[in-house]
Amino acid sequence: MKLDFSQVTAFLLTDRQSDRVVPPTGFTAWLTLFSAAVMAFLAVFALALSLATGRLADRWGNELARTATVRISAPEGQMDAQTAAALRLLETTVGVERARALTDEEQAALLAPWFGPDLPIEDLPIPRLIEVIETGDGFDADGLRLRLSAEVPGAMLDDHTRWRQPLVRAASRLRLLGWISMILIGGAVGAMITLAANAALAANSQVISVLRLVGAQDVYIARAFVRRFTLRALGGACVGVVLGCGAILLLPRAQIEGGFLTGLGFQGWHWIWPLIIPPLAAGVAFAATRLAAHRSLKELP
Amino acid sequence: MWPLGHLGAESDKGAAVIELENVAYSYGGGELLADVSLSLSPGSFHFLTGPSGSGKTTLLKLCYGALVPTAGQVRLFGQERREMERDDIAMVRRRIGVVHQDCQFLDHLTVSENIALPLAVSGRDLLAEDANLRELTGWVGLKERANALPPELSGGERQRAALARAVIMSPDVVLADEPTGNVDWEMSQRLLRLLIELNRMGKTILIATHDLALIRAAKTHVQARVLRIASRKLQLAGADL
Predict the structure, then answer these.
(1) Domain that holds residue A39
(2) I need a labelling partner for A84 at 20 to 30 A (CA). Which of A112, A291, B48, B211 fits?
(3) Which residues on B lie below 8 Å from A203 (Cβ)?
(4) What is the pTM of this model?
């Protein structure tokens, strides 16, 4: 749909006269503003949730999909030999870009969040981990498992799909829920504005009948209400978005250790997204009031 | 004097501005009007009388398109009422000034803004019409009350404000429903003079009233026809009034 901006600005700026024919209402105006602000505030969070879980699903789906781990559990004396055997085997496997055994320090760093930094890890029988980076095409996990079990009895291949797939599914579902929330919030704004507009139309039936008597067309009468509710929704949504973004900025930063959970919030150009909430709210209010006004005017003589 | 004459009465002479043909109207159960025919030619002056509840207000509403007849045909400026859309009605209202018995205003706007309301809703430039508005406000004697709010006005002032609002668009027709209902004799004479003056400028006037003294007073100044509603029918009253 093409939008004529000169008409929009004329509608917003120069039509004060038609606005004046409907008496001002203090209390209900504030209620509409408040509801619009609350809805916009919630919409900011639904949006942040959708975008954050989207990032999460992408990360788990793409980056982790290209890595796998081989775990070597062997008696003390055989550990190095089996690790070397596994590495040799991996180097000759089609689909493996590179394989690398983690050092003791790296393994200690991985375990530190669970065991604390002071535990003497080197005294524990900890399996050796080999990080496997796949090529774009990936490797045949079942084939690799067979070869490993034949040549390196203590090796265990974990290609992450077991725990990655449910996480990606959950993240995608969460993202879907976020978008559904956005749609529901939009619907609730529409319903709320429709109710408010209907109440305003009913309360001003005498005004409407006077306007009809002196030759006002429906579009003129409707405009007075439409303009009013559109501006209220726009104003309320602006306030709600500012507060919502402020709250998101004040969220504590996610720790490096919890980094795989990604921060809830907006990153980079995603900060543009909340800015579309006020115009969207105004658009919903415009359509809802217009529909309500024309419907109720049709029932009047 | 307020120069409306050059603007009005441009409708084709001879063709009726409002025409009712065998019109009937019934509210729910009972029939209020039956077989009513009426033709208002441009520049004519009519009174409409009849007992309370006989259907004077209903007949006026049929004349400005607020009601659709249950039978027969109503033509407003040649347009058949049944074929008119809501916007057509709105456009016709700009050519028909209506003064209601209980004049309703927008109570949050000043008298002057209320009088100018028809200009505003039809998208006229209010600044350009300002001189016109002042002159009209003076003509109905509300110059001092121009910035008052409608609830502060007396009955007579309300009637005059309603008349001013009805004629600001320089309509072809003025329909008045008991315009002197709530005012004293002197004020009713003033209102009548205003209506007679509008008629001299070429406007078609139809006044519903049960005030026979008012009709007699008018007849000394203007060639007025008197219509009477009796037992659901519209008759031309004799000259014996």
Answers:
(1) 18-61+165-298
(2) A112
(3) none
(4) 0.75
